[in-house]
Design goal:
The structure is a homotetramer.
Chain A lengths: L2 H15 L8 H17 L6 H4 L4 H21 L4 H15 L2 H4 L10
Amino acid sequence: MSDIDQMINELVKFRDERNWKQFHNSKDLALAISIEAAELNELFLWKKEEEVETIDPVRLCDELADIFAFSLLLANKHGLNIKKIVLEKIHKNRMKYPVERSRDTAKKYNEL
Amino acid sequence: MSDIDQMINELVKFRDERNWKQFHNSKDLALAISIEAAELNELFLWKKEEEVETIDPVRLCDELADIFAFSLLLANKHGLNIKKIVLEKIHKNRMKYPVERSRDTAKKYNEL
Amino acid sequence: MSDIDQMINELVKFRDERNWKQFHNSKDLALAISIEAAELNELFLWKKEEEVETIDPVRLCDELADIFAFSLLLANKHGLNIKKIVLEKIHKNRMKYPVERSRDTAKKYNEL
Amino acid sequence: MSDIDQMINELVKFRDERNWKQFHNSKDLALAISIEAAELNELFLWKKEEEVETIDPVRLCDELADIFAFSLLLANKHGLNIKKIVLEKIHKNRMKYPVERSRDTAKKYNEL
């Protein structure tokens, strides 16, 4: 079994032991991702560049894991193949951000 | 190579072709996750329960892929093993949410 | 003095007593707004429509107050007149959402 | 009429002309605040400290105005007096962040 399938299996098992599927509609799963993302961001709030790379690694792992967990559950709910959608998005981004125009700039594609 | 490593390889390649590592400090990567999460949430804004499961699947894939992409890049920057941190977080959550007390309720662990 | 100026005065006083202006660059103030907004959203997470209007009013006040506080500080930092920018945005939205086309629909202006 | 009441009056008028009250439950208003906050944050994404204070002032005004608009509508929906809740929150924060311990530090109250 792939690493992704193993994670999804464990997440689904955890969810089903608690009978939580009833709460996991797509809108709330998306909201949960965004709340966990904010908790991740809180680790960096008010921090200068030099302090940013020295944050608590345990909290970083916990918050990132939560983001992955809810993202995996949402993807699973919609039957999405995560590797496939990520590789396809990279492909789309190659079109939106051609190397010659996007090199060394953080501008958005519509401002290039 | 695992699916996760393949995604990371492609993301790093895409990033390095554009020389974007200079922009990818942890604070901005975390911010990017949270901005993509908000774009995902926008698909569900003002939508009632019955409309939620019928949103545009292409946009859902695109936004979820963006969240995975920046989360993978941030994890990779800190040398984290994604499967490991997700499984460890599930383990922690088993302690915080014992089956008997958390079954059928969406309450947070500190309100159980 | 207007209500808005009174709030800003108290916020600036609170900030300056702690010498916190050094942390209040625009990027972190914007990030703080977004983190407080996520804390507000957490009150509603996993809640069905009928539970939504019965959330803890004290926490609602606290989270909303935090959002106003950081938004007022960011506006003040850039010398913005809040009433003016809100009324101007309503004016812009009148153009983007003409009554006849936007009535009874939650569609975004580019999908009307 | 106070500046705040004037803004709320105009927002309610705009909303009611379009019959949008049906969409403005508390959960979606909170979600809207958070989506607008992410759009504000996008102005600062990948920007270094020295670039941050030179962002497009029109977009800053637009995004901040949207945050104020939805926050005012949510406060109004719950009959909250905005000046009151902001001043009360400052009062609470004076307890959580005593001057002598919080001066010159961005630490959270539970880490002081």
